Amino acid sequence: MKRKPYSTDLTDEQWAKLKPHLPLAHRRGAPRRANLREILNALLYISRTGCQWRLLPHDLPPWEKVYSYFSHWRDDGTWERLNRELRMEVRVSVGKNPEPSAAILDSQSVKATEMSQTRGYDAGKKIKGIKRHILVDTLGLLLKVMVLTAGQQDRDGARVILLKVQGCFPRLQKIWADGGYAGKLVEWVKALCGWVLEIVKRSDVAKGFEVIPHRWIVERTFGWLNRARRLSKDYERLTASGEAMVYVAMLPLMTKRLAKQQTCFA
What we know:
Elements: H1 12-18, H2 36-49, H3 63-75, H4 78-93, E1 102-111, E2 120-122, E3 127-136, E4 142-149, H5 154-165, E5 174-177, H6 184-192, E6 196-199, H7 215-225, H8 239-264
Parallel strand pairs: 1-5, 5-6
Antiparallel strand pairs: 1-3, 2-3, 3-4
């Protein structure tokens, strides 16, 4: 009997966009028996509701099976690859080059639970936990995420994430960031990576709320990620799991955009 759908389930249109990017079953060994659409529905349920693995509803696949796929795709890079391929499709669908020429960098400090193996203290925000460093394109789509201790300065975290993406984006020329990245980092980025790191600061005379050029894009991305309750704190034991959960949280956004584009031009 078909179960009653959850609001987090992939629609038929979303599934059609995501399915071609999923790993194929191995030719050797027993045939794949898991329903990948239901596995993904379970992961999106966890992402949006923030529930524990063992508290997955009984009408979804067993949590052991869901976690097995999550951890395996985390370790072999599937989640990051899905994010990359869907991001490129979204960019092409709106008339942009698949590869970005500009990006925005920022970080977010998040409290950690006792499960987290990576915890530090962010004295500026008075948060004991982890810090998510993200790099996004001009659409706000994720290019890279790194989870580090909250005690690490933004400039030090920037060096880690920028070294990770060096050589991954051949068209990248400029990166915007806030005042926390000012100083020697600007010259370091130019000398080592060949990119222009432009610091965008809030006006000294501004009062109240002000939309800051370019930086609002990455702040909006954090707003999108805040919809996923699983990301409200760091519930993951491994930093790799924390990064994978961010990639999972981006899947509904990109597949919805692609499905909408298909509907508009159908």
